[in-house]
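Much of our argument rests on the idea that a fold can be written as discrete symbols. This step matters because it turns folding into a mapping between discrete strings. The record that follows shows the chain in one-letter code together with its fold in token form.
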Amino acid sequence: MTIPLIYQLNLVLYIYIFSHMDSAFSQKQATHQNRLAKDESSDRLSSWKKRWGEDKIGWHENEIHDSLKQFGHILVPNFSLEAGESMRVDSSCNSSGIDRETSVRVFVPLCGKSVDLAFLAKQKGVLEVVGVDGIRKALEEFQSNNPTLEIGEDLERVESHAKKFDRFRGKKITLLKGDYFDLDIDSIGGELFDSIWDRASLVAIQPNLRKEYIEVLSGIIKPGGTILLSTLNRKEGDEKARKAGPPFSVDEAEVRRLYEGLDWVESVENLNETDELNERFKSEGLTSVVGLTFVIQVKKTSS
């Protein structure tokens, strides 16, 4: 039986309409997911939004991290502790006077309002420091605390990268506001990082996200790059307290389990251990807490 032409045309029209409705729904869903990340209402960000909103940010330090001061020379050429004594950024920043052959781009994941960002931006051997955090308040407070960096929101760049991240740019510094796990080469400006300063970022995330976290790092660091990693080991005490977090316990065995054997990792070295037991940890029932610092060297060529 032959189907009349009018019915055939109607059928084609219905197929066309429903296919475009499905495409529009998919686009709307993707936009909704991006909006969730930016509105800080996603599962990964909502708890951090609550902490920042209540000013429960006990992890924030007003001093440069000891591991960065001690081992920053591993990340940055011509590293200098004196860069932390002044809030001024070298006048040659953002100019053709920077030696792009020897200067490095440094990435700081889950940066919050860390003073380490400004310290790194003031290093002569740093071309640019890029930090990412999911909470706008954290980045706005950093912006307010560091007026000499002249940080402002970059609205044009937001439009050019599918709105996954809001961007704040200043002198030798870029801050990305969004979900760390959405990072890719485009969202970081199309250029891989020479160095990564993981300042207790790995210990902040849920343990079941650690492999995914490292997969993101693997996609944004250059061959031959370097990761300086700071972790915390809830070594001894009440069993429930040892498993609590954040910060979650990440001992040397866990660092080696996560990084050693990856085809892009050359080596993992434990540089330092420090006693980090304080009154807060004692009140939780812990009797020994150890800070650890590792350097993870990336292979110069992929396997």
The mean pLDDT is 84. The chain has ten helices and nine strands. Strands lie at 104-108, 126-133, 152-153, 166-170, 173-177, 193-199, 221-237, 265-275, 286-298. The two ends are 62 Å apart (CA to CA).
